[in-house]
Amino acid sequence: MNQADTDNELDKTWWKEAVVYEVYPRSFNDTDGDGVGDIPGITEKADYFDDLGVDVLWVGPVYDSPNADNGYDIRNYREIHDDFGDMRDWERLLSALHDRDIRLIMDLVVNHTSNEHEWFQRSRRREGPYEDYYHWVDGDPDEPPNNWESIFGGPAWTYDEERGQWYLHLFHEKQPDLNWRVPAVRKDIYEMVNLWLDKGIDGFRLDAINLLSKPAGYPDGDPESGLLGNEHYFNGPRIHEYLRELHDETFAGRDVMTVAEMSHITPADAEAYCGPDGDGLDMTFQFVRDGMDSEDDGRWASPDWALSDLKRVLASWQQTAGAWVAPCLGNHDQPRSVSWWGDESYRVESATLLATFLLTLRGTPHVYQGEEIGMTNAEFERLDEIDDPDTLQRVELAIEAGEADGFDDLREAVNEDSRDHARTPMQWSADDHAGFTDGEPWLRVNDDYPEVNVESALADESSIWYYYRDLIRFRHEETPLVYGDFDLLLPDHGQFCAYTRTLEAETLLIVLNWSDAPATFECDAVETADSDALVANYDDPPENPAATEFRPYEAAVYRL
Question: How many domains does the chain have?
Answer without folding.
Answer: 3
